[in-house]
Amino acid sequence: MDWKLYAWLKRGNRRKELVKILSNTKQPMTAKEIKTELNISLSQVSFLLKELSKKSLIVCLNPEDKIGRLYIITEEGKNIWQQQKEN
Q: How deeply is 62 buried, as exposed, middle or buried, from its count of CB atoms within 10 A (0-12, 13-18, 19+)?
């Protein structure tokens, strides 16, 4: 378990919400779908997606597409989210 990563995720309410949404869905989601779920601006969603991608908690399935990119949670993201839920 990467405790630095755990603490980083725990500090960000929106980061936690985005990870929660992706962990609870079986299908990949677009930024627009995430925007609707979180009720925040698309630019905020984009920023969160970049942050979480850099930390390898989520992954983009079709990075070559400019529109309609699909995101899923990684195994590491699932593990850290499970730890967050238990505490």
A: exposed
More confident residue, 67 or 1: 67
Do 36 and 20 touch, CB atoms closer than 8 A? no
Distance CA 45, CA 85 (A): 22
**Residue 41 in tokens:** 């601006």
| Rounded-to-integer distance, Cα 62 and Cα 59, Å | 9
Task: Extract the tokens encoding 42.
Answer: 């698309």
Closest CA to 58 of 85, 45, 77: 77
Rounded to whole angstroms, the Cα distance separating 44 from 17 reads 13
* pLDDT tens, residue by residue, 4-54: 999 999 999 999 999 999 999 989 999 999 999 999 999 999 999 999 999
Cα within 13 Å of Cα(69), Cβ side: 18
Model confidence, pTM: 0.89
